[in-house]
């Protein structure tokens, strides 16, 4: 190999081959550079911008909710979510991405979540390009772990999102409702309204009906982020759009009343109680049983827990105060009496056939709740003792149209228009309704006997019954129940008119009704609601119910001469209203109208249970 | 054994100029990549220190006659093998592989030294005047010389660096006079291996493809009977054996191989780096974002930006113009190196130059193709540009040895 030109020539040949390979290799590199930097430059320039610039939502703080005296009922606080943000780049690559088991295990351990769940979330995120929340409301311990390891876990970020907080838990839960993070379906449906992922949205109650007031308007800004997702700066080229905070709500609710209602209803399995101010229709308190803790919803429920809450036979999510419909029972006798007095069928002093425990009509026997009978009564006494026989006789003389019109004028049979979602209308049957139901002429006057005592097809919500009590208290003045008192410190704009005209009747007629109602509590069927030193007017009711025990009802207002509160109680499947509903009203009134110490004494000396064995609290 | 007086005009000035230019660009880029807040901030000062040391080492490598290095070849090779074993036993790991030896203040990769030692030993063997590469006892020991360090480095595991050994071997075989037909036949089972992995060997089409390719190769190369039988047997063995091995691999092992073949599937790991590297280079465009102004770099999207992915920083900040400049400088360096191997009159010197340049070329190619996303992530630094002390010294010594050959290219 040492000598001569043959070696030299051989070397030159070999150099030629090697040089060709070298040049080929570098040509490949040049080709690659041209492709990336010239042909696909625009694509990669965008990706690098997407990499570093992100449009971030500046969350508008959701308005707080307070009672009429400023006691906080709902506010928001920042919580930390751990999020997986898939690569913005090269979606085709992302879609085919393999999620490594080791990586998933590590992330799952860090965020203290289920491995399978994390894997599924990351897969979906890679496919869709949308970030996935791996862990909500993370503890500071989890946060510290994530922060420590974030450099080695590209895509994992910590995001601050507002969480709704209800400091009193289940108190007034149905009235307040709850707000949770917006879901994908809602995002799609409401995309035009400026919602973005991570926003809170009201689902039920005031949170839902006042969504537009509470919500505010999110702002936005472009921020520069680094590879760890940490923001480095705000992009100056595009000025940020500041958020418009949601407005605060003050409700008509009075915390004292609400608390008293909650306490009174504490032992009730199913039922509802509503208190309204008869002077303006503002709702002072509203309770529905069974209840739920809205905080649970704010944190996000597991699927099992959701099923448990929404599918159960008791359905805690149902707001029985406005969605539950019940026969009003004898509480409806107020309506019957006013109708009869207005129509001139009877006067307050009219004596009808005495009550011997039942009434014969059309070949049928209609029983009075008091088997022994009430004897001879005038109209006021019949109301006081809730004598069914007296009211049957009124029913036979009363026209269905007249009775229905009065009921509707009180606000029964139609939505009251309260500013809460999904209110039920109830039902006040008319001639046309019976014709539709049974066929024209195929139903008889007998329905009037049942309607006169509040049985049969008629159905009311507890709110409507409270409204009935309030309107009876004020002599038929029309009211519209509502829960919003002030918005952002200003009185609620233009309170809408009542849905119903109210009931006009002579002062004498009203006086008779008021007298009867006062006597109900004083010495009639509702003595369990008696409060020493306070004139209380009320009416008991017992609604027959094909699915079990009777529902106990009671409605009342106080003080009887200048009413400031009107209430309705419906306790499902317990028995007589005088026994199971009236005592609850008594407890609430004692708490509200007696000094603390007296209220306690009163409760101790007059416990609820004793009532059942004491005075005969009838219907 | 003289340190003959250095005659400066004989130095390969273009190669020297190109090397200095690359070093300067490297320092500027490392400066840019390490002015970003983070763990690597300010490392460019250290790099500058290393550079001074490296230039000194290159000078020493240039001055001593290459024959003075010659007797050191086998001891150096032996030592480097010992060090490679030591790495496997005591080495410190990074990213799941043991590649480094800790020697007090410095850490180094013995595989770098093993590369130069192997080149020396091969050059010595192949420069024997009685060499006849058709004979088994002449080519087989050389194969062992390359495969032992290859196996050791591959076990670290550092597949990228380990493949440098067979590549050097093949090029030096070729340079020493092995007929290209023989080389082509010997390398062809590698193609079969890859095809057997990617395609389905149970399909008749696979065998048609392999058979057709081999037949064409045989017609062109016309090998001897022995070689022909050996080649066909190897192809059959690889084609039949691969599915068996593949079926015995564990799921995770298979996935590792697949990730190696297609890193885009793994955006949280190796794929992330490649994607970010491509974004960096592509977003640089023709003129680049400007020195110190790379956003991919500055916001830490680009991983290992001062070491393995430094070329992406060049591409982002200096654009196509800067990247092409670097590519052209490397091309000049490599081609001048091979040219030097071609003109050196001494056989040992020629083979030495060829082996050293091949090592450089391999490393440049693998690194640059990796940063543009056309090769898997292997963790090879870019010679003369990347941050890293031992690598820089070894690369400068390689350049120094090439200059050594240049100085004495007219000697026999």
Would you kindly provide a written description of the structure presented here, covering whatever features stand out?
- Chain A: It is found in: Cell membrane; Membrane.
- Chain A: Keywords: Carboxypeptidase, Cell inner membrane, Cell membrane, Cell shape, Cell wall biogenesis/degradation, Hydrolase, Membrane, Peptidoglycan synthesis, Protease, Transmembrane, Transmembrane helix.
- Chain A: It holds the Pfam family PBP_dimer.
- Chain A: One of its GO terms (cellular component) is plasma membrane.
- Chain A: This is Penicillin-binding protein 2.
- The complex is a heterodimer of chains A (about 625) and B (about 400).
- Chain A is of the alpha+beta class.
- Chain A folds into two domains: about 55-85 and about 105-250, Penicillin-binding protein 2a (Domain 2) (Alpha-Beta Complex), CATH 3.90.1310.10; about 255-490 and about 495-615, DD-peptidase/beta-lactamase superfamily (Beta-lactamase, 3-Layer(aba) Sandwich).
- Helix content of chain A is about 40%, strand content about 15%.
- Chain A contains 26 helices and 19 strands.
- In chain A, the strands form five sheets. In chain A, strands 2, 3, 4, 5, 10, 15 and 16 form a seven-stranded mixed beta sheet that branches. A five-stranded antiparallel beta sheet of chain A has the order 12-11-19-18-17.
- In chain A, helix 11 runs antiparallel to helix 24 (about 580-595) and helix 15 crosses helix 18.
- The termini of chain A are far apart.
- The model of chain A is unreliable at about 600-615 (pLDDT under 50).
- With about 400 residues, chain B is mostly helical.
- Chain B has two domains: about 15-65 and about 250-405, no CATH class; about 65-160.
- Helix content of chain B is about 70%, strand content about 5%.
- Chain B is built from 17 helices and three strands.
- Chain B has a three-stranded antiparallel beta sheet with strand order 1-2-3.
- The two termini of chain B are about 15 Å apart.
- At the A-B interface, helix 1 and helix 2 of A face helix 8, helix 13, helix 15 and helix 16 of B.
């Amino acid at each position: 190999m040492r000598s001569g030109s043959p070696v030299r020539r051989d070397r030159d040949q070999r150099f030629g081959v090697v040089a060709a390979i070298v040049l080929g290799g570098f040509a490949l590199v040049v080709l690659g550079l041209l492709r990336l930097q010239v042909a696909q430059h625009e694509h990669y320039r965008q990706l690098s911008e997407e990499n570093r610039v992100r449009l971030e939502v500046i969350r508008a703080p959701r308005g707080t909710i307070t009672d009429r005296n400023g006691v906080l009922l709902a506010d928001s606080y920042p919580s930390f979510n751990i999020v997986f943000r898939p690569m913005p780049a090269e979606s085709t690559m992302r879609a085919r991405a393999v999620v490594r088991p080791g990586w998933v295990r590590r992330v799952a351990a860090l965020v203290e979540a289920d491995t399978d769940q994390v894997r599924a979330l990351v897969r979906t995120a890679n496919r869709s390009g949308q970030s996935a929340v791996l862990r909500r409301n993370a503890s500071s311990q989890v946060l510290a772990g994530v922060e420590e390891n974030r450099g080695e876990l590209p895509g994992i970020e910590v995001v601050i999102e507002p969480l709704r907080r209800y400091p009193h838990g289940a108190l007034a839960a149905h009235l307040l409702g709850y707000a949770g993070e917006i879901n994908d379906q809602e995002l799609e449906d409401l995309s035009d309204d400026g919602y973005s992922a991570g926003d809170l949205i009201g689902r039920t109650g005031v949170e839902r009906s006042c969504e537009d007031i509470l919500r505010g308007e999110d702002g936005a800004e472009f921020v520069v982020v680094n590879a760890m997702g940490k923001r480095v700066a705000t992009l100056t080229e595009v000025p940020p759009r500041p958020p418009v905070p949601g407005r605060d709500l003050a409700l008509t609710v009075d915390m004292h009343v609400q608390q008293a209602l909650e306490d009174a209803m504490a032992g009730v399995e199913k039922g509802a109680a509503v208190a309204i101010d008869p002077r303006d229709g503002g709702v002072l308190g509203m309770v529905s049983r069974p209840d739920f803790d809205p905080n649970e919803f704010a944190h996000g429920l597991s699927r099992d827990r959701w099923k448990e809450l929404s599918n159960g036979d008791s359905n805690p999510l149902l707001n029985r105060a406005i969605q539950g419909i019940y026969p009003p029972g004898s509480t409806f006798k107020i309506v019957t009496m006013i109708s009869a007095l207005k129509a001139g069928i009877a006067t307050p002093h009219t004596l009808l056939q005495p009550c011997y425990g039942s009434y014969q009509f059309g070949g049928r026997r209609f029983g009075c709740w008091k088997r022994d009978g009430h004897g001879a009564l005038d109209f006021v006494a019949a109301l006081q003792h809730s004598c069914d026989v007296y009211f049957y006789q009124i029913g036979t003389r009363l026209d269905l149209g007249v009775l229905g019109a009065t009921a509707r004028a009180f606000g029964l049979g139609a939505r009251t228009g309260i500013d809460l979602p999904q209110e039920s209308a109830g039902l006040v049957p008319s001639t046309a309704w019976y014709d539709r139901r049974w066929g024209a002429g195929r139903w008889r006057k007998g329905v009037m006997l049942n309607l006169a005592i509040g049985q049969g097809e008629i159905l009311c919500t507890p709110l409507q019954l409270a409204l009935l009590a309030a309107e009876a208290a004020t002599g038929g003045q029309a009211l519209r129940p509502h829960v919003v008192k002030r918005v952002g410190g200003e009185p609620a704009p233009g309170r809408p008119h009542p849905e119903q005209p109210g009931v006009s009747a002579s002062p004498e007629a009203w006086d008779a009704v008021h007298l009867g109602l006062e006597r109900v509590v004083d010495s009639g069927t509702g003595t369990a609601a008696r409060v020493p030193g306070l004139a209380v007017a009320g009416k008991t009711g017992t609604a027959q119910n094909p699915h079990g025990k009777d529902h106990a009802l009671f409605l009342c207002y106080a003080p009887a001469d200048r009413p400031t509160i009107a209430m309705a109680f419906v306790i499902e499947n317990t028995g007589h209203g005088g026994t199971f509903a009236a005592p609850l009203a008594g407890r609430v009134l004692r708490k509200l109208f007696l000094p603390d110490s007296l209220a306690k004494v009163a409760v101790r000396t007059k416990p609820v249970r004793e009532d059942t064995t004491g005075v005969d609290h009838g219907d | 054994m003289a340190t003959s007086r250095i005659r400066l005009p004989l130095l390969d000035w273009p190669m020297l100029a190109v090397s200095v230019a690359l070093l300067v660009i490297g320092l500027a880029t490392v400066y840019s990549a390490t002015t970003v807040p983070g763990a690597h901030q300010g490392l460019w000062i250290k790099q500058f220190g290393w550079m001074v040391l490296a230039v000194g080492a290159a000078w020493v490598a240039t001055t001593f006659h290459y024959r003075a290095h010659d007797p050191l070849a086998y001891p150096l090779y032996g030592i480097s093998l010992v060090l490679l074993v030591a790495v496997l036993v005591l080495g410190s790991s990074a990213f799941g592989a043991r590649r480094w030896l800790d020697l007090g203040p410095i850490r180094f990769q013995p595989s770098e030294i093993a590369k130069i030692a192997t080149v020396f030993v091969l050059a010595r063997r192949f420069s024997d005047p009685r060499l006849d590469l058709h004979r088994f006892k002449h080519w087989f020991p050389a194969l062992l010389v390359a495969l032992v360090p290859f196996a050791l480095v591959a076990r670290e595991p550092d597949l990228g660096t380990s493949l440098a050994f067979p590549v050097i071997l093949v090029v030096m075989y070729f340079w020493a006079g092995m007929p290209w037909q023989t080389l082509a036949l010997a390398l062809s089972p590698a193609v079969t291996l890859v095809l057997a992995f990617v395609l389905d060997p149970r399909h008749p089409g696979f065998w048609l493809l392999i058979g057709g390719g081999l037949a064409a190769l045989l017609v062109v190369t016309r090998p001897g009977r022995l070689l022909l039988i050996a080649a066909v047997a190897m192809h059959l063995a690889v084609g039949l054996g691969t599915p068996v091995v593949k079926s015995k691999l564990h799921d995770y092992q298979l996935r590792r191989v697949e990730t190696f073949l297609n890193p885009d599937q793994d955006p949280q790991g190796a794929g992330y780096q490649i994607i970010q590297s491509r974004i960096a280079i592509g977003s640089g465009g023709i003129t680049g974002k400007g020195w110190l102004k790379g956003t991919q770099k500055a916001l830490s999207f680009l991983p290992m930006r001062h070491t393995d992915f430094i070329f992406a920083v060049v591409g982002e900040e200096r654009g196509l113009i800067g990247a092409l400049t670097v590519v052209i400088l490397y091309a000049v360096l490599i081609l001048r190196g091979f040219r030097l191997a071609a003109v050196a009159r001494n056989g040992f010197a020629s083979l030495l130059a060829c082996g050293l340049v091949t090592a450089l070329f391999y490393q440049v190619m693998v690194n640059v193709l990796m940063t543009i996303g056309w090769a898997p992530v292997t963790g090879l630094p870019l010679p003369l540009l990347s941050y890293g002390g031992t690598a820089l010294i070894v690369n400068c010594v390689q350049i120094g040895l090439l200059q050594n050959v240049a100085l004495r290219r007219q000697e026999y």
